[in-house]
Write a structure and sequence with these properties.
Number of domains: 5
Helix content: 25-40%
Shape: globular
Strand order of the largest sheet: 11-12-13-14-10-15
Number of strands: 21
CATH class of the largest domain: Alpha Beta
Largest sheet: 6 strands, antiparallel
């Protein structure tokens, strides 16, 4: 007989204390934001349970707060909040959503820093008392999107205007333009599946309104929010925008619509989400009157390979401002491992720590000069300690040049990254004070490995390091990469998975696994999806394939997904096969083996120089590469065993697959 699942119960004293705290906060917008921060700190798997418990308070303040939670979290808490409102209605409370306070748009100001990919925006509303409620945004035109939000209530107009006079670099914009700035930043939250700053119950009005700003008006706004740059700075800023796929800003620095179409057509592939820009900068500038020629280069990571683009920019000056008129890509070079002069051959130092006291760690960080936040990670923050003369975006995009150290706080770990050992030791001595962190390991890695970690795609440094051994761990040429998401609406995600060309299994622990097959080759496995109560993982073979699978999966679901990071599964799709799973689904392992071998047989593999095993078996050179790969697989079996990685499919089965297909064709 199946054991009945025990209902989780929270201590009544905890719920009562939390309820009293929230009731004291919800009288102002500032207080509501603090109350939301309390709810947001609760682990996702317990959040609905806590909110359900709050309905026992029986207060009007809690009824109003439930409407704020619905506006803020949407489907994630909608059903539990509606249940709570029904309970409160039974106690005689008014559960109709309160009308938002009336206000008249007064003014909006934004910093003239759009070329940096970040702006500060203040929008002031005049209330019935003649005072201003000022809504303040920190907007980033990268994965952070709406990065920060706070409110200042009941500010005298004279005080507001005095503040504006003290900040002469801020530009006044109208309401439509303010809506566009917020829309444009929020689009990055949607595209990168990152959570926007708390406060959507207030700033949702901007997102709900169409900004009504045409393409020409958007370009004119970008130019008003960008200072005049010289030709070198303009090209370097172009690379900065290219790194973050900032098409809105790129459009604004190209001279006209015809040039815009030509240039964007040339760099369209580079702007794809899966391609990562590592370096890009102007190296030589020539100016003749109102024309300038700038020689530059950009280096990108595409499917693990380094590709260098040498380019010539032609610039035209109109008044005091330079614009890009034309771009010619002069040369495209694959920077292979054998290139001695490549800066990416250098080794850099990475110290990995366990965070023991987060508050103490942040106190230690305050003792470091010239430290700034570069960006947020799914579970932390990326900080950079610069050389004093470093001027950021104006110097272009480059890795660890003019940088003392990078410090990454990611979940429960911290990593210090630097070119020079003395820099690591200096930062180490500061950050480990008062027992804030404990050293776990030291590493020397290549720059691409470190950059991959800094991109925020991996859940831990250890997981990312598995890539260094991937040729041994994935000697058959297939590498399973997994993306993990938090989900807000399980039923919508499950409905999407059911529509795929897939079959599914229910697993112990209340999760379901879906296996999607190729449309062209129905026996070949394409992707694996594992669906839990408030999370889902998506796995596919290689970064490019995962990017395509994710794009298809995310379509129509972006509002209920939050991307958390990627990881590599050493045992691939067979990692899920345990003794219990074998008992529950005795047919699954063999079914997966057949689907996996079919996928392997039809995949373009690096060990075969881009050929599939099916193609390689047809030629003398291909057969030689196949046998060479089989020999490597045999040699690496012991390595895999020492690392505790199972080899579910043995070498004989790979060889049999090739031989059987040859016999079928003949």
């Amino acid at each position: 007989m199946r054991e009945k699942k025990k209902k989780r119960i929270l201590p009544r004293s905890l719920i009562k204390g939390l309820s009293e705290d929230i009731k004291s906060l919800v009288k102002t917008n500032e207080g509501l934001l603090l109350a939301l921060e309390i709810i947001d700190e609760i682990p996702p798997e317990l959040r609905a349970l806590v909110v359900d418990g709050l309905s026992s308070s029986g207060s009007q303040e809690m009824a109003d707060f439930f409407h704020v939670l619905i506006a803020e979290y949407g489907k994630e808490l909608e059903s539990v909040c509606h249940r709570g409102l029904e309970k409160l209605q039974m106690k005689g409370l008014d559960i109709i959503a309160p009308a938002p306070p009336a206000g008249r748009f007064f003014q909006a100001y934004v910093t003239r820093t759009r070329h940096t990919g970040q702006v500060t925006l203040d929008v002031a509303w005049e209330n019935d008392e003649g005072l201003l409620d000022v809504e303040c945004f920190f907007l980033s035109y990268n994965a952070d999107g709406i990065h920060g939000f706070f409110v200042i209530s009941e500010m005298p107009i004279s005080e507001y205007e005095a503040d504006r006079r003290m900040l002469p670099d801020m530009v006044r914009i109208d309401y439509n333009e303010a809506c566009f700035m917020i829309h444009d930043a929020h689009a990055y939250n949607v595209n990168y599946l990152t959570r926007a700053a708390l406060g959507k119950f207030i700033y949702g009005k901007y997102l709900a309104k169409d900004h009504e700003l045409g393409a020409g008006e958007q370009i004119e706004l970008m130019r008003r929010l960008t200072p005049e740059l010289d030709s070198r700075e303009l090209v370097n800023t172009f690379f900065y925008a290219q790194r973050y796929k900032d098409r809105t800003f790129i459009n604004s620095i190209i001279v006209d619509v015809h040039s815009r179409q030509a240039i964007l057509g040339q760099i369209d592939g580079i702007l794809r989400p899966e391609n990562m820009m590592v370096e890009g900068r102007a190296i030589e500038v020539k100016i003749f009157k109102n024309h300038s020629t700038v020689m530059a280069y950009g280096i990108h990571v595409e499917e693990g390979d380094l590709i260098r683009y040498d380019s010539t920019f032609h610039l035209h000056r109109r008044g005091a401002r330079w614009f890009i008129d034309a771009l010619h890509i002069d040369n495209i070079t694959a920077m292979n491992d054998g290139i001695k002069e490549s800066p990416f051959e250098d080794k850099i130092y990475c110290f990995v720590y366990e965070i023991l006291d987060l508050d103490c760690l942040f106190e230690n960080l305050e003792d470091i000069d010239d430290i700034r936040e570069v960006g947020e990670l799914p579970f932390g923050v990326h900080l950079r300690i610069n050389q004093p003369e470093n001027s950021g975006h104006r110097q272009g995009i480059f890795f660890l040049s003019d940088i003392l150290s990078d410090v990454v706080i990611n979940g429960e770990e911290m990593v210090i990254i630097a070119r020079e050992m003395e820099n690591v030791i200096e930062i180490d001595a500061i950050l480990r004070q008062e027992g804030a962190a404990g050293l776990l390991s030291r590493h020397e890695v290549d720059i691409i490995t470190a950059y991959t970690y800094l991109s925020g795609q991996y859940l831990s440094f250890d997981n990312m390091l598995r890539q260094e051994n991937q040729e041994l761990l994935f000697e058959d040429g297939l590498r399973l990469v997994t993306a993990r998401y938090a989900i807000k609406d399980k039923e919508r995600v499950k409905a999407k998975l059911n529509r795929l060309n897939s079959y599914s299994y229910q697993f112990p622990g209340d999760f379901e696994v879906f296996y999607e097959c190729e449309e062209r080759y129905p026996k070949a496995l394409r992707a694996e999806y594992v669906l839990g109560n408030n999370w889902v993982t998506v796995s596919a073979f290689g970064d490019n394939e995962l990017s395509r699978v994710r794009e298809r999966f995310e379509s129509g679901l972006r509002d209920c997904l939050e991307f958390e990071g990627t990881q590599i599964k050493c045992e691939g799709i067979f990692e899920i096969i345990t003794a219990d799973v074998r008992k529950q689904h005795p047919d699954l392992e063999n079914r997966l083996k057949r689907a996996y071998l079919e996928k392997w047989f039809r995949s373009n593999l690096k060990p075969l120089r881009g050929m599939t095993p099916r193609e390689a078996a047809k030629s003398v050179e291909g057969k030689r590469l196949l046998w060479s790969m089989f020999k490597d697989m045999r040699r690496n079996e012991k390595f895999r065993k020492n690392m505790g990685v199972r080899s579910v499919i043995d070498l004989k089965q790979y060889m049999q697959k090739v031989e059987i297909e040859k016999e079928i064709r003949s």
